[in-house]
# Entry
Amino acid sequence: MRIDVHHHLFPPAYIASLVESEHYLARGVARQWTPQVSLEDMDAADVATAITSITAPGFAIVAPELRFKLNRECNEYGARMALDHRGRFGLFASLPLPDVERSLEEIGYALDTLKADGIGLLTSYGNKWLGDPAFAPVMAELDRRKCVVYVHPTAPDCCRNLLPGVPDWVIEFPADTMRTIASLLFSGTVERCRNIRFIFAHVGGVLPLLTEHLVRAAQFDVRSELKKFHYDTALRAHPVGVFSALQVVGVSQLLFGTDAPLRRSIDQVTGLRSCGLSEDELRKIDYENARRLLNSSTFAFGGALHADQ
# Structure
């Protein structure tokens, strides 16, 4: 019954771009990935459905004029994969940000034609975070559609390769999730766009440690706002990660996530079960919270969670 909301796909066109740009992902599991690789990993961890998304660096690896085409190819590949393996995969479709006009076009295509389960965004594009005024038309459209928006970290242009020998995903990814949450809150985007259901990867990065900093800086109820977001458990399936999240947002906002195929799903299952959570808490994280969140969407689904209906 597990529903994995943090599961990556690597369409052939995306892999080719990673290889051409000599990105480190092209040297690892991504180059050998196929849908069957994901299915075998899911089966080993009793994952019924994985909602897939493109991981960082997204489409920043190609020239701006090529991003829309690559984005479209990846979304169409994900939608076909969901149809070919009905009930096993869903899709958080990508957008070609920072191109706002083409992103608005892709929202309509992804949700209306491809029947994606939501939209997948990165925490930043260049040096702009999701609350930036430049992205306000995109947020307004996602709000109008009452969209589920999955947010995965990346490293902004300002902060890439700061520490020799330390990959960006070690420090900058969790920090950038915090930056974009702050951007959404302090820009007023969250207040304007109440219909967007946000999911943030890795329990919000460093959010649990810095919540009090937000509280002291804000003139609104930060704690209440944070408890309206959802967060996945990928890379946080250990006591420090789990219990800090429970303290800040509560079990009702946590969703099972694995970061597969970059991580093994079974390791996330084992990690969660080593934290001393009750069966009721585990059931909520494994699938109940995800079904409640995704089934409440007003747009049409790609069929992943409704294959038996």
